[in-house]
User: Which sequence fits this backbone?
């Protein structure tokens, strides 16, 4: 899901590397929020706890055209110490991670740090270390994701995905399924809903095995 960005446009504002240099171009890049961790689900559950009995139900889209009072509640929730650190895992993303490791990809994480929740930056880094140790490289971006190289991007949010693919025509995207990305249509995007793991394995294997400069798709 979208995360509000700092005002500057630096792509990488904080980096924690497992290796000093990338030893392979066979990189699989993972988003965090609503890909590996249930950001929107936990946020909605916490908002429900703050909702008075007489209030209207929460909107389906918490970000587009949200009322000022709702934005303030979201900021309040996200600024709680350890909120980002304790987000529950989102299983679809971890299914894809297991495939990436099994195939042999070098895994990196690319996530955005929200400007309204300064604790998110340090807590995201701490959570990655807790779950992965030194097995992955972490990049926390303050701007666009489009400049970051990977053979495979695992991300839930269509605008970020399409922006990345515009600069990576041979790239493959595996998209964990959510209601808001159900209508995505792009030949390089595989939407994973828990029932099509064989398709995910097959396409990620082809992307891993392709020669440099060659497409992974068999058109």
Assistant:
């Amino acid at each position: 899901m979208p995360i509000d960005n700092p005002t500057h446009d630096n792509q990488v504002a904080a980096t924690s590397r497992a290796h000093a240099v990338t030893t392979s171009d066979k990189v699989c890049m993972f988003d965090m929020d609503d890909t590996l961790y249930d950001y929107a689900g936990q946020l909605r559950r916490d908002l429900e706890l703050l909702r008075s009995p007489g209030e209207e139900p929460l909107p389906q889209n918490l970000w587009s055209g949200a009322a000022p009072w709702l934005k303030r509640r979201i900021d309040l929730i996200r600024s709680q110490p350890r909120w980002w650190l304790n987000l529950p895992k989102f299983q679809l993303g971890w299914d894809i991670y297991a495939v990436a490791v099994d195939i042999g990809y070098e895994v990196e994480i690319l996530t955005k740090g929200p400007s309204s929740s300064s604790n998110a930056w340090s807590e995201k880094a701490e959570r990655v270390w807790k779950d992965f140790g030194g097995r992955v490289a972490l990049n926390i971006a303050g701007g666009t994701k489009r400049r970051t190289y990977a053979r495979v991007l695992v991300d839930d949010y269509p605008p970020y995905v399409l922006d990345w693919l515009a600069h990576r025509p041979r790239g493959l995207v595996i998209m964990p399924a959510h209601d808001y990305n159900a209508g995505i249509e792009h030949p390089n995007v595989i939407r994973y809903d828990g029932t099509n793991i064989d398709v995910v394995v097959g396409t990620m294997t082809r992307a891993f095995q392709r020669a440099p400069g060659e497409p992974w798709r068999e058109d």
About this structure: Residues 146 and 164 are 4 Å apart (CA to CA). The two ends are 31 Å apart (CA to CA).
